[in-house]
Design a protein that fits this description.
Blueprint (H helix, E strand, L loop, with lengths): L12 H9 L4 E4 L9 H9 L7 E8 L2 E8 L3 E2 L1 H7 L5 E3 L2 H8 L16 E5 L8 E7 L2 E5 L1 H8 L2 E3 L2 E2 L1
Parallel strand pairs: 3-6, 6-9
Antiparallel strand pairs: 1-8, 2-3, 2-5, 4-10, 7-8
């Protein structure tokens, strides 16, 4: 009888996905302040990393389909550019409850990795200008640092200029 391969235990679904894929990453944790107005800016400051290297995960509705946008915390998501990147006509921010239910993560801790239902993903092209970027590891106060090309490969992301400012 063949032995069952054990799945990695512990961590978040995002870190389990990285470990399972054999992708190199660095985990960074910090004390999250629940009253902070911007989770991404809080992460950049706590980690001592430029806000253009810390990326936020946003869930949008593109023509009725939930789509993940990964953009620098220093800027904003261009919804028209996101729709165009996936061949859609119209994009709007997704209902937060639907985003949480679909991804399995809470707002402020949504990771593009290890989602309950894998969503179409678009990574802002500015990520390619950095050797590594930081994204949510699936919990507020926990970030994963990895190569942007690894993130794109693991999520089958379209890489496009979807961020502004």
């Amino acid at each position: 009888m063949a032995k069952k391969q054990k799945k990695p235990t512990g961590g978040t679904p995002a870190t389990v996905a990285l470990t399972t894929a054999g992708t190199p990453y660095t985990l960074h944790s910090y004390d999250h302040d629940p009253s902070t107005p911007s989770y991404g800016e809080e992460a950049a400051e706590a980690l001592g990393v430029s806000p253009d290297r810390v990326f936020k995960t946003l869930v949008a509705d593109v023509d009725g389909e939930l789509t993940v946008a990964v953009v620098p915390v220093a800027g904003q998501l261009d919804l028209k550019a996101l729709a165009a990147a996936v061949g859609g006509k119209k994009a709007a921010m997704a209902d937060p409850v639907a985003a949480e239910r679909t991804t399995g993560y809470v707002r402020g801790g949504i990771s593009p990795l290890g989602q309950r239902k894998r969503l179409r993903t678009v990574l802002d092209s500015s990520a390619a200008t950095h050797p590594t970027i930081c994204i949510s590891a699936g919990r507020r106060g926990l970030e994963v640092e990895l190569a942007p090309q690894d993130l794109a490969a693991l999520t089958d992301a379209v890489v496009a200029p979807i961020g502004r400012g």
